[in-house]
Write a structure and sequence with these properties.
The complex is a heterodimer.
Chain A (H helix, E strand, L loop, with lengths): L9 H8 L13 H29 L15 H27 L11 H29 L9 H32 L6 H4 L8 H19 L36 H5 L5 E4 L4 E4 L1 H6 L3 E4 L2 E2 L5 E2 L2 E6 H7 L7 E5 L7 E4 L1 H4 L5 E6 L2 E2 L9 E3 L12 E6 L1
Parallel strand pairs in A: 1-12
Antiparallel strand pairs in A: 1-2, 3-6, 4-5, 6-9, 7-8, 7-12, 9-10, 9-11
Helix pairs in contact in A: 2-3, 2-5, 3-4, 3-7, 4-5
Chain B lengths: L11 H28 L3 H36 L4 H24 L15 H34 L2
Classes of the chains: A alpha+beta, B mainly alpha.
């Protein structure tokens, strides 16, 4: 019987030296508060996930019906603005939610067997994926790339981890969530004894909501111009050449010379024949004017009025009915080509634009000719066109 | 904690719902992990992704929570109500503002060839925002102090 190690061993000493759950006790924490914050945060992440899927499938078509959204023309502007705004609003909610449960990390026992370890692991996955999505998302809106991976594909991949971890978390915590939502968010007993109460549990909920409102108001100005004066952290003021902001300039992608050349031609290639049109020849074709917003995946958007040749008319020049078309840019980079689905080609407002807000395209807006169509992420509104192919 | 820490007894249909949700959640995590590995083909990308995944939760539990506790303890020691709450609210809102604002304030994303990107004066904006937060909270503190004084006077015999 004396062969067993002493029970008051090293691990006990370590446990005694470290803080425990009571070290961080606060009367402001309660399951009722945590459950309500969880509902808000869950809604924010669900909204981000669904609007993110919309943007993903517009760029990477998977199903026939998801290839393009033709109308209303503002729908992607709304979904992507909501995506970024819900993500920014979730940051204060997540901070208070984490604060409301953070002492549990230090609970005893620190290692309470395999089931306890699995629960801790599921929380780690949840917090890791959730903070990853919000932090990389807001950094991407500031174009601050403090990493070596490609943002869009990893942000999409980790979104599945985050939403899966949230669903798993709901499964694990369901009894507590029900109990927490059933209980009122009472003010802490200590606070209620005071004649004037400021911060209570309900106050913490208000602080989380106020923080989310602050986050939205300070960033939404590049999506809703009304808020621009107070949106001190919006990515853009809304200014730019011809009154429209620019995401990638002509200099940054090295197309200045080719785009300014008098030898520039737009080649339209059908299955049987092809034509090469100069800017003057394009301008001589029947023109159409459409009011279409420019929406960036980073969330900013702006309305603009475009004039140019409907893409379907250009296909008709080479004898093609509306069908899938690939538009290619003078730019050789990542966004140097994009596919326009037949359903978008068919509508007359899908333009090869030559004019923006009444004057010829600025070089940074894609001079001499660019694609503009409803509900396409800005990176697919291909600028500095050189070639259009069917198929 | 006002709600008991032991889960209330749940019905069998709730238990089935929990297992279904758990299975869906694990499937989502697995699919996401598979996509993440595919989206990060090289080890530098995987290490970078791993750091961005793991540093925030570790930072939260090991540094930020104890730090918040120390700051809270100092505030409680030095200030009485309502100023204690006023300063906590102002501090928390300031942290939110800087958390969201610092990528813009830092200006790292600015490009010389694209003047319409990050084209606001973010430092002036942040200063104005912090001024609004602190002036608002100090005014609220003054109002609450005055009300507290009136309440305690009317309570006096």
């Amino acid at each position: 019987m004396s062969g067993e190690p002493p029970r008051d061993g090293l691990s006990r000493q370590v446990e005694r030296a470290l803080p425990d759950e009571q070290t961080f006790a606060s009367p402001l924490r309660s399951t009722a508060l945590t459950a309500r914050l969880g509902i808000w945060l869950g809604i924010a992440f669900a909204v981000c996930f669904l609007t993110g899927l919309v943007s993903h499938f517009l760029q990477h078509p998977l199903l026939g019906s998801w290839r393009a959204l033709t109308s209303p023309v503002w729908i992607y502007r709304v979904t992507q603005g909501v995506h970024v705004t819900a993500g920014v609003a979730a940051i204060p909610l997540l901070v208070i939610k984490l604060w409301s449960v953070a002492p549990k990390f230090w609970r005893r026992p620190l290692f309470g067997g395999p089931v306890d370890a699995l629960e801790r692991l599921s929380i780690l996955v949840l917090v890791a994926a959730g903070t990853f999505q919000l932090l990389t998302g807001v950094l991407n809106t500031a174009e601050l790339y403090a990493w070596t991976f490609f943002f869009t594909t990893v942000h999409y991949a980790v979104a599945w981890v985050a939403i899966g971890a949230i669903v798993l978390h709901i499964a694990v915590k369901l009894p507590w969530i029900r109990a927490g939502l059933g209980a009122p968010v009472r003010q802490a007993p200590e606070a209620s004894a005071e004649p004037v109460r400021a911060l209570s549990r309900r106050g913490m909920l208000g602080l989380a909501g106020g923080g989310a409102a602050l986050a939205v108001i300070t960033t939404i100005g590049d999506k809703v111009p009304f808020f621009s004066p107070v949106s001190v952290f919006s990515q853009r003021s809304g200014d730019g050449p011809q009154g429209l902001p620019v995401n990638h300039s002509a200099v940054s992608v090295g197309v200045v010379e080719a785009a300014s050349s008098p030898d520039w031609r737009l080649k339209v290639v059908g299955s049987d024949r092809s034509v090469a049109l100069s800017l003057a020849e394009l301008a001589a074709l029947p023109q159409r004017t459409a009011s279409l917003p420019m929406t960036c995946v980073e969330g900013w958007s702006a309305g603009a009025v475009w004039t140019g040749v409907p893409l379907r008319d250009l296909l008709a020049v080479v004898g093609e009915d509306p069908r899938d078309a690939t538009v290619l840019s003078l730019e050789n980079g990542l966004y140097g080509a994009s596919v326009v689905a037949a359903s978008l080609v068919a509508i007359p407002d899908t333009l090869v634009a030559l004019v923006l807000n009444g004057s010829p395209l600025d070089l940074d807006h894609g001079y001499p000719a660019r694609l503009i169509a409803p509900n396409r992420p800005g990176v697919l509104q291909t600028k500095w066109l050189r070639r259009i192919e069917v198929g | 904690m006002s709600v008991p820490e032991l889960p209330p007894s749940s019905t069998s249909s709730q238990q089935i719902l929990r297992w279904v949700l758990a299975a869906v959640g694990v499937a989502g995590i697995g699919y996401g992990a598979y996509l993440t590995l595919g989206a990060t083909p090289t080890w530098p990308e995987r290490i970078s992704t791993g750091l961005w995944l793991l540093v925030p939760p570790v930072l939260n539990d090991v540094i930020l929570l104890p730090l918040a506790a120390v700051v809270g303890w100092l505030i409680v020691r030095r200030l009485s109500r309502p100023w204690r709450d006023v300063v906590v609210v102002a501090l928390v809102l300031s942290v939110f503002a800087l958390l969201i604002g610092w990528p813009f304030i830092s200006g790292y994303g600015r490009l010389a060839n694209n003047p319409s990107l990050l084209d606001r004066n973010y430092i002036a904006g942040a200063a104005a925002l912090l001024a609004v937060i602190w002036i608002g909270c100090l005014l609220a503190g003054a109002v609450l102090t005055g009300r507290e004084r009136r309440v305690s006077q009317s309570d006096a015999p």
